[in-house]
Specification:
By secondary structure, the protein is an alpha/beta fold. It has one domain: Alpha-Beta Complex (Maf protein). Helix content is 31%, strand content 21%. Strands 1, 2, 3, 4, 5, 6 and 7 form a seven-stranded mixed sheet that branches. Strand 3 and strand 4 form a beta hairpin. Helix 4 runs antiparallel to helix 5. It is globular. The termini are far apart.
């Protein structure tokens, strides 16, 4: 986990695991409504239930900044990922392994999230074209399984960061991309697995993390609670 936040290695004395709740099938609870994160899990054969979290992101970050005085960019997305995981865990009936996620783009020393309007998306692309940025994707895991089912009560997280190199788009290309509506509701105003794919020249890091969920990182986190990623795979079809 990047510095500035506690959580890695916390156990049942920090957040008690749910007792007496049977394990779920599927076991993974995704605290996100992101189509990209859902697609990454589905393509990897991982079964999950989605329970999007209702979190006031501005209030969460303001509270964290008031407490710590400052937060590295990597820790800001981790703070939001944790808040989402905790909110979904609290809203569930218990017994899940809960995964929260959040992504933001670091560009020229500032963090940018979802543009939300066509005007903002267009302005960002005019600034980003031909340049490099760094996408931070925070992951937070809560083991809410019953201890009798191997639950640890652990709650911890880590951030995956990837360098993204943008093509030098023409004004017409920017206008056409914004008109698709895709960049309005995604971190950094771009995707790599949709209309925006042709406008990403290259990346340095995990391409899954650019979509919002790093599979190698998820594998390592699951190992911390004695689970293999294969434990989450959907059953093979009967021959």
């Amino acid at each position: 986990m990047s510095g500035g936040l506690t959580g890695k290695g916390e156990r049942a004395d920090a957040r008690p695991a749910t007792v007496g709740t049977p394990p779920h099938e599927p076991l993974l609870l995704l605290a996100s409504q992101s189509a990209g994160r859902k697609a990454v899990l589905s393509r990897a054969g991982i079964e999950f239930t989605a329970l999007p979290a209702d979190v006031d992101e501005d209030a969460v970050l303001a509270s964290a900044l008031d407490t710590s005085g400052q937060l590295a960019f990597e820790d800001r997305v981790l703070t939001l990922a944790r808040a989402k995981a905790e909110a979904s865990c609290a809203a569930s009936e218990g017994g899940y392994v809960v995964l929260g996620g959040d992504s933001m783009l670091e560009f020229e020393g500032e963090l940018v999230g979802k543009p939300r309007t066509a005007e903002t998306a267009r302005e960002r692309w005019h600034a980003m074209r031909g340049k490099k940025a760094r996408l931070h994707s925070g992951h937070w895991l809560i083991d809410d399984r019953d201890p009798l089912d191997g639950g640890t009560g652990a709650t911890f997280g880590e951030t995956a960061s990837t360098n993204v190199y943008f093509a030098d788009l023409s004004d017409a290309e920017i206008d056409a991309y914004v008109e698709t509506g895709e960049p309005l509701w995604v971190a950094g105003a771009f995707t790599i697995d949709g209309y925006g794919g042709p406008f990403i020249e290259r990346i340095e890091g995990d391409h899954h993390a650019v979509i919002g969920l790093s599979l190698p990182l998820l594998r390592r986190m699951l190992r911390e609670i004695s689970l293999a990623v294969s434990d989450l795979w959907r059953p093979a079809p009967m021959s």
